[in-house]
Write a structure and sequence with these properties.
Elements (H helix, E strand, L loop, with lengths): L1 E9 L6 H13 L8 E4 L3 E6 L4 H13 L5 E9 L14 H16 L3 E4 L3 H18 L4 H12 L5 H8 L3 H10 L2 H16 L2
Parallel strand pairs: 4-5
Antiparallel strand pairs: 1-3, 1-4, 2-3
Helix pairs in contact: 1-2, 2-5, 4-8, 5-7, 6-7
Pfam families: SatD
InterPro entries: Lambda_DNA-bd_dom_sf, SatD
GO molecular function: DNA binding
Length: about 200
């Protein structure tokens, strides 16, 4: 099984495309090469595949990157399933993971939520989507400053609060406050729960 993330940028028309698209490309390149592992298409939509164990952390890395830019947000549909056909271009690959993810993004555009997951297990979907709806109440309200800190923590697990304070030219206590406001420790626990639930599939 694999995980496929299909997403689109919210308010992309009101932002400098060159800035967010360059940063998103640089992020996705950390995890694989285009167009086999990821692709940005139709201006502000993208698709990316990864290991199922990594998908929650990858989703949060993308979310925090986009939220760290003014007025931007991202809708993300996570599909878990098989890859029956692997093309040189991810957008031409196929399987249940791709179908789940692609259809789910259309549903998200209609229901107003910013993240959802679809697997072949109704019970797992129910549990994880309730979790995502609750946690998104936090994620969707991250300030740019909070999103920047969260992104650095996700991308560099060895980074310390002192390192972050130097990077952002703020005090270590300010870093600590931002992480507390963002419920960072709860995010780490949520990632562990997410991985456990997906391992049951």
């Amino acid at each position: 099984m694999i995980a496929v993330i299909t997403g689109d940028i919210i308010n992309s028309q009101q932002a400098d495309t060159e800035v967010w698209i360059t940063r998103l490309k640089n992020l996705l390149e950390n995890w694989g090469s285009a167009p086999n592992t990821w692709e940005i298409y139709r201006g502000d939509e993208f698709q990316f595949k990864c290991n199922i164990d990594d998908v929650f952390w990858r989703f949060l890395a993308i979310k925090s990157l986009i939220k760290s830019q003014e007025n931007l947000d991202v809708r993300i549909a996570i599909g878990i399933g098989e890859e029956n056909f692997s093309s040189d271009k991810i957008t031409e690959s196929n399987g249940t993971a791709y179908v789940h993810s692609g259809r789910l993004l259309n549903d998200l555009k209609n229901d107003g939520h910013t993240v959802s997951i679809k697997t072949s297990n109704v019970s797992v979907d129910r549990d994880l989507n309730i979790l995502l709806k609750w946690s998104s109440k936090d994620f969707d309200n991250w300030t740019m400053a909070t999103a920047e800190i969260i992104h650095e923590m996700i991308m560099n697990k060895e980074i310390t609060q002192e390192d972050l304070a130097k990077k952002f030219a703020i005090s270590q206590s300010s870093v600590s406050q931002r992480l507390k406001r963002a419920n960072y420790e709860l995010i780490v626990e949520t990632n562990q729960y997410f991985r456990k639930k997906i391992s049951e599939l």
